[in-house]
Give the backbone structure.
Amino acid sequence: MTNLWEDLETGPDAPDVIYAVVECLKGERNKYEYDKDIPGVMLDRVLHSNVHYPSDYGFIPQSYYDDEDPFDVLVLVKDQTFPGCVIEARPVGLMEMDDDGEKDDKVIAVPVEDPRYDHIEDIEDVTDQKKEEIEEFFETYKNLEAGKEVEVLGWQDKQAAKDAIEHAQDLYQENFA
C-alpha cells in the first residue's frame, strides 16, 4: 500500500504546485490524521468546541515542519472531498500560528483543477471574510481542550508560503531521506 506521506512527491512542480493530502473535511468536526505506520487515515478525535473545519485540511507529502509533523495545508474548496483524497493545489499564502508554544503555520492553497479559484493568485485575493473565518476556527477549535492555547500570528503572501514549503522539504530530507 502506498504511504501518502513518504511515497508521494511533494507536488508535480513544488513549491509552485503541490499535492495536498486531505485529512479533515470542510464543514465537519472530526479531526482525522494520516497514520503513516498503517498507512491510512484514522479518527484522532472529535473537536471539543462547536466549530467545524472552514475548508479541507491536511498535509503536504514529503514535508516536515518545525512542529515535527508533516506541513499543514488548508485547501479552499466549495465542496468537501474525502479523507485521503489528493488535491493538486497552488499555494497562495501562509497563516502563521502558535499552537501551545510551537510554531504551527498553515499553507493556504487553492485547487488547480477548480476554475472558481483561478482568480486567487495571492493571499490578498482571498476575501477578508474567509481569512477571518479561518482565523476564528484556528483560534477557537481547541478552547474546550484542557490547557490548549492557540494564537494566529498573521498572514504572509504566496512567496512566504513557497519558502516555508521549501523549508519543510529540506527538513524532511534531513530527517527522513
